[in-house]
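INTERNAL AUDIT FORM
Audit reference: QA-55
Scope: verify that the stored structure record matches its stored sequence.
Auditor: D.O.
Record contents follow.
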Amino acid sequence: MIKKLIYALRFMTILPLPWKENEDLVQVSRSSGMFPIVGLIIGTLLALTGRLIMDIFSGDVRAFLQMILWVFLTGGLHLDGLSDTFDGIGSRQKRERMLEIMKDSNIGAFGALSLILQLLLKYIFIKELNNISPWLIIIPPVTGRWGQLIAIYFYPSARKEGMGIFFRQHIRKNELIFALGTTILIYLLIMPLAFLSVLLGHGLIIILISTGISKMLKGLTGDVYGLVCELGESATLILTVLYASLFSTAQPLEGMNYLIHLFF
């Protein structure tokens, strides 16, 4: 279990956990069940950072610094997939040409625009989320990475090679079930039961996105998995803020409040 988590952290973050020369890539791909826990670690670091600088910086600066930390912790891995995918599908070319554009390391207009809008959206909604509870920011990184598993498990690969298809070939139902259970548990530890509707809404959005892109590309790629994570995080940010604004059950559970007061 710990070994799989280390594999997942090595792959999805810039945390100092170096790769070995003879790394078992099959085990790396089977670490996908740990993706939500990686999201939990990222989200906790974001929440702790926000909490620590709360009395130092304004809400705008705090949200901006959290957004920068979010990008830094992931090394921009999923943002790269977001921009590549938008460059490809934004070209409106035939499938083969779209896949070629997505492999091109140069960023185009659609890719650049998608990065700007994505980061701007995150900044705005991180600030909104902080105004409700600084701990709710844990949820989007968890949910976004769970959404990746939906895309990996239920949709075919558009390519015959690459890291994306490697995960697709080796993911098992056990990883999917474990990741879902972990995600639900994290939700219940941080938010009231009713907030599971945010997870459901996120799932429906991911299915719509994945189905639409899969029809265009006849499958998904590693870049699309990155896009799914980023858009899933954005969807969760928006849904959480909307839900919290409509209902008065937005605060963390009593157990979470106890931990907050115990350590802070």
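Auditor finding: record pair retrieved intact. Residues 2-263 form one domain.
Action required: none
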